DNA sequence: GAATTGATTGTTGGG
DNA sequence: CCCAACAATCAATTC
């Protein structure tokens, strides 16, 4: 186990709109991390584990990027991927909790979806390969 | 048990 | 085929 504290913060973190408490040092993990953090952005995303199992739940930003990406491109037709990301991120942060609500909702749904697949574990039919 | 690090998710376009 | 910034978020590892 890990962050048992993350058990279920009454959707505080998942739904800031309902409760913009922002976890606020839920476990001081984020705070401390924020303090440390700021290391050099080492693009070390060379995949490690996670075989072909159930894909993890997407984050609100994932859905946001999917939706806004196109829009941002239209407003910025001559921007590269990196720029889009920066713009999207900027907008994302600029978005209000209410605006994030729908995205969070999607992420939540995905979370459940992921949990469901994970829960599937081994049922009757499954085991594709 | 709490904190931290790490890996994963999605986008597009290119090397 | 993998990575690039962006943000989130879980998940296992570690202490």
From TrEMBL:
Q: Which residues, if any, are the signal sequence?
A: none
Organism listed in the record = Coemansia pectinata
Key words of the record: DNA-binding, Nucleus
Pfam families in the record = HMG_box (PF00505)
Q: Where is the HMG box domain?
A: 54-122
Cellular component GO terms, alphabetical = nucleus
Q: What is this protein called?
A: Non-histone chromosomal protein 6
Biased composition of type Low complexity is found at: 1-35
Recall the GO molecular function terms of this protein's record: DNA binding
Query: What spans are recorded as compositionally biased (Basic residues)?
Result: 44-54
Domain of life of the organism in this record? Eukaryota
What are the start and end residues of every segment in region (Disordered)? 1-54
Residue ranges flagged as DNA-binding region = 54-122
Identify the PANTHER family for this entry: HIGH MOBILITY GROUP PROTEIN DSP1, MITOCHONDRIAL TRANSCRIPTION FACTOR A, ISOFORM B
